[in-house]
Amino acid sequence: MGPLVPQGIIGPEWDFIIALVIGMGFGFILEAAGFSSSKNLVGLFYGYDFVVLRVFFTAAATAAAGIVLFDYFGWIDVEMLYVQPTYWGAAIAGGMIMGLGFVTGGFCPGTGFAASSIGKIDAMMFVLGTFLGALLYGETYPLLKDFVNSGYEGGIKIYDTLGISRGLFTFLLIVVAVGMFYLVPLIEKRVKKPEY
Amino acid sequence: MQRGTIFLTIVALGIGVVIWLLPERQESHDLPPHQLLRDIIRETRFFSTDEVAAMLINRDPSLHLVDVRDSTAYRRFHLPGAVNVPLADILKEGSLDLLSGDEQTHVFYSNGTLRANQAWVLTRRLGYKNTYVMRGGLNRWIETIMEPPVPPSSASSEAFDQYDFRVAAGQYFRGEAAAPKKKVKTPPKVIPRRKKKVVASGGC
To answer: Which is nearest to B62 in space by CA: B161, B186, B197, B204?
Structure first.
């Protein structure tokens, strides 16, 4: 039966309402999980708090397992899901800029909004910087255009590239996630959380 | 180590093993007939000649006209900006690449509706989503845009607005200057166009 939106079971006029509901839920969960504190977030880079890594690996493993199982049960058609196309140049450069902004600013875009909504001034500055960056990107786009579109690969999937089955890849992802959950506490124990 | 952690680990790895061992479902990616039927009877897959004319005049960048007649007919006359993909060649690699842009509105047309419809069904089965048909084809284009019939004096004001638009559009496509004395109403500002699906992109 699914996915609901690409098949027109839920019409495109609902897009913004669904986005609003999901966005509010996402922001609420971020705040409830303590992701509005940049101390928790950047702990990943210093090694005293891996909550970000845990959350994202849990999300990735749960979503991957869910999609494979739903596809097997015939509840969704995986082929109809949108796959973000790969652009090598933009992905590598964008990842580095994102990481640099994350460790210096102390937020990633979503958590920046969550933190500014509870009144954190540094997060508001971060959001302002996000908009300035977007403006700068928009204004310099003609110069960056060739680079941004370089290395286009289309909507490739990692298990096709590796030449393994989707099920095996999902299994490996779960194994890595579980292994991570056992490994990172060992690092966290060794690194002392700095007091500010 | 806590018992709960061990339990969760076993459950997670168990689900992983099950997923690994699931047989791959063998499915054809062609659109199943009942879905194709649902799309065929949907009126929104058609563009009227007026809608296409409005999009051309407004230089709508998303409009991508595809002429499915043979190349001789294409060379003799075609709509501005249209590319020629004869129906016989539609399944060739290069032709299908033309239809792959998701953000574009690909509108097939031929002399009538039939060949454009055939092209539409073929590409639809292959999974191309943003394809449409100009209803009536070039015959109706000539009848409505190039030589529009004057509505009877008892017709509604909408019919006269449409007639004025068609006259103006016909002048535009023939490359004539607008008639100086006769007041030509501007084409309606509302451009009928299909809603685009907004693709949610990821991010944290």
So the answer is: B197
Range of the domain at B180: 148-186
pTM > 0.80: no
Residue A195 gets which letter from DSSP? Answer: P
Are residues B91 and B134 located together in one domain of the fold?
A: yes
Domain shared by B61 and B154, yes or no: no
CA-closest candidate to residue B16, choices A60, A161, A82: A60
CB-CB neighbors (< 8 A) of B16 in chain A: 65, 170-171, 173-175
Q: What is the pLDDT of residues B126-149, one digit of tens each?
A: 888 888 999 999 999 988 888 888
Residue B172 and residue B84 share a domain: no
Residue B8 lies in a domain: no
ipTM higher than threshold 0.85: no
Same domain, B123 and B178: no
Select from A108, A175, A176, A184 the residue whose CB has the most chain B CBs within 10 Å, as the one to mutate to test that interface.
A175
Among the candidates B142, B176, B194, a domain finishes at: B142
- Residue B43's domain is classified under what CATH number? 3.40.250.10
Secondary structure (DSSP) of A99-144: HHHHHHHS--HHHHHHHHHTT-HHHHHHHHHHHHHHHHHHHHHHHH
Whole-number pLDDT of residue A136: 95
B19:A19 CB<8 A: no
Residues B132 and B164 in one domain: no
Tokens (6 digits) for A85: 């196309």
Residues B138 and B37 in one domain: yes
Is B69 contained in some domain? yes
Chain B residue with the nearest C-alpha to that of A55: B204
pLDDT in tens, B55-109: 988 888 888 899 999 888 888 888 888 889 888 888 887 777 778 777 788 999 9
The pLDDT of residue B179 is 54
Domain contains B57:
yes
Describe the strand order of the beta sheet including B63-67 as a list of residue ranges.
B46-47, B131-134, B105-109, B63-67, B83-84
- Three-state DSSP state, A88: helix
